[in-house]
Specification:
CATH superfamily of the largest domain: PPM-type phosphatase domain
Shape: globular
Distance between the termini: 24 Å
EC number: 3.1.3.43
Catalytic activity: O-phospho-L-seryl-[pyruvate dehydrogenase E1 alpha subunit] + H2O = L-seryl-[pyruvate dehydrogenase E1 alpha subunit] + phosphate
Protein name: [Pyruvate dehydrogenase [acetyl-transferring]]-phosphatase 1, mitochondrial
Number of strands: 11
CATH class of the largest domain: Alpha Beta
GO cellular component, one term: mitochondrion
Family: Belongs to the PP2C family.
Largest sheet: 5 strands, antiparallel
Length: 401
C-alpha cells in the first residue's frame, strides 16, 4: 500500500500535481526490469495499459487530456531510463525506489516548466506547478515492512499499544524545519560561510519558506537567469516585469531547496496498532502523544471503561450525577464520526484547554470564511492506517522461520 499527505503552499497547483503523479513514479520505481520491459512493449504495440497508468480524472476533461499526455510522456521517459539502468532479474530496493521517485518527479516538474507547452493554458499550469510548492509524506507498507519517505514538515506517527492498554507515540519522520538543528546545519553546509546568517532567517529559508524541503518552489532552485528566461517567455499571466517578485533576497548560490526525502524504516510489531500521517496543521494544534491517545481511545473505546476522576474533592450526589451525564454526552458525541481521522480533526479544530471538544468553538472555526480561517488555523489533512496485530504477528514469524 502507498499512503500520502501533500501540503501545498503558494497555491494548490503543486500539491494537486503530486497527488496525481507521485504514486505512479514510486510504483514504476518498484517494478522489476522484466515488468518494465513488458510495460514498454505494451505501449509500443498500442495495447491497453495496466490500471496503474489510468490517470486521475480531472474535472476539466479537455485539460485532463492535455495534462495526461504530458504526465504520461514524462513517466514513460523515466521507465525507459530505468530499463537501461537495470538488469534482468534485478529486484528494486524500496528505499532507493522511494528516493529516486521523489527526486525524478521534482526534476520533471522543473523540466516541464522550462520546456513549456504550445497550449497556452497548459503552459501556464506547468509554471504554476513549478513556482508553487508542496511537501510530501508518503508511507509504503508491504506486509510488516514500513517505509516512510518525508520531504517537508508533514509527519508520520505510529500509535503503539502498551501492555496496560494505553497508547504511546513513536515518530516515524523528522520535520524539515528550522526547529530541526541537523536540517539547518545541512543547509548551511551547502552554502558559503558568507551566507550563514541569511540562508535561514526568522526560522525560514531565505526568510520566506517555512519547510526546508519541498517539491516545486523553483524560485529557490533555479538560477536567476533561468527564472528570468522562463518567465519572460511565458504566457501573459506571468508578465516579464513580474519576475523580480519571485526572486528571494540574498539569492546567491542556488539551489537552496531540495525535494530529496528523508527515509525511515520500521518493522511493524503486533503492538503497532495504527499510523497517523498528518500535515503540519495537525501537529501545530495537538501534541503527538495527544493525537495517539485520541485515535487509540476512539478505536478501542478505552475511555468508556476508565473510572471517573473527581480530583479528590468532596462531591454531592447531584454533582456526581452531573459529571456522569457529562461523560455520557461525551461518549455519544465521540462516536458520531464515521472514522478516526474525522474524529481527530474534530479535536484538532475544536479542542479547548481541558482537552475536550468545545462544540461552540468547533462551529465557529468551521464557519469562518477561508481568508479569515488562515489567521486561526492551518489547513489539516490526515490519513490513518490501522494495522491487524494478528496478521503482523504471523508475518513476522514467517519472516523469521
Amino acid at each position: 500500500m502507498l499512503l500520502g499527505v501533500f501540503d501545498g503552499h503558494a497555491g494548490c497547483a503543486c500539491a494537486q500535481a503530486l497527488s496525481e503523479r507521485l504514486f505512479y513514479y514510486i510504483a514504476v520505481s518498484l517494478l522489476p526490469h522484466n515488468t518494465l520491459c513488458e510495460l514498454e512493449a505494451a505501449v509500443e504495440a498500442g495495447r491497453a495499459l495496466s490500471p496503474i497508468l489510468q490517470w486521475h480524472k480531472h474535472p476539466n476533461d479537455y485539460f485532463s487530456k492535455e495534462a495526461q499526455t504530458l504526465y504520461f510522456n514524462s513517466l514513460r521517459t523515466y521507465w525507459q531510463e530505468l530499463i537501461d539502468l537495470t538488469s534482468p532479474g534485478e529486484v528494486p530496493d524500496t528505499r532507493e525506489a522511494l528516493l529516486n521517485a521523489f527526486k525524478r518527479l521534482d526534476n520533471d516538474i522543473s523540466l516541464e516548466a522550462q520546456v513549456g507547452d504550445p497550449n497556452a493554458f497548459l503552459h501556464y499550469w506547468v509554471l504554476r506547478v513549478a513556482f508553487s510548492g508542496a511537501t510530501a509524506c508518503v508511507a509504503h507498507i508491504d506486509g510488516s515492512e514500513l517505509f516512510v519517505a518525508n520531504s517537508g514538515d508533514a509527519r508520520a506517527v505510529l500509535g503503539v499499544q502498551e501492555a496496560d492498554g494505553s497508547f504511546s507515540a513513536h515518530t516515524l519522520s523528522n520535520d524539515h524545519s528550522a526547529q530541526n538543528e541537523a536540517e539547518v546545519a545541512r543547509i548551511r553546509s551547502e552554502h558559503p560561510p558568507s551566507e550563514r546568517k541569511t540562508v535561514i532567517r526568522q526560522d525560514r529559508l531565505l526568510g520566506l519558506l517555512m519547510p526546508l524541503r519541498a517539491f516545486g518552489d523553483v524560485k529557490f532552485k533555479w538560477s536567476i537567469d533561468l527564472q528570468k528566461c522562463v518567465l519572460e517567455s511565458g504566457p501573459d499571466q506571468l508578465h516579464e516585469n513580474e519576475h523580480t517578485k519571485f526572486i528571494p533576497p540574498n539569492y546567491h548560490t542556488p539551489p537552496y531547496l531540495t525535494a530529496e526525502p528523508e527515509i525511515t524504516y520500521h518493522k511493524l510489531r503486533p503492538q503497532d496498532r495504527f499510523m497517523v500521517i498528518g500535515s503540519d496543521g495537525l501537529w501545530e494544534t495537538l501534541h503527538r502523544q495527544e493525537v495517539v491517545r485520541i485515535v487509540g481511545e476512539y478505536l478501542t473505546g478505552v475511555h468508556q471503561r476508565q473510572p471517573l476522576k473527581v480530583g479528590g474533592y468532596r462531591v454531592t450526589l447531584g454533582q456526581m450525577q452531573e459529571l456522569l451525564d457529562e461523560r455520557k454526552a461525551r461518549m455519544s458525541s465521540a462516536f458520531e464520526d464515521q472514522n478516526s481521522a474525522t474524529h481527530l480533526i474534530r479535536h484538532a479544530v475544536g479542542n479547548n484547554e481541558f482537552g475536550t471538544v468545545d462544540h461552540e468553538r468547533l462551529s465557529k472555526m468551521l464557519s469562518l470564511p477561508e481568508e479569515l480561517a488562515r489567521m486561526y488555523r492551518d489547513d489539516i489533512t490526515i490519513i490513518i492506517a490501522q494495522f491487524n496485530p494478528h496478521v503482523i504477528g504471523a508475518q513476522r514469524q514467517d519472516g523469521q522461520s
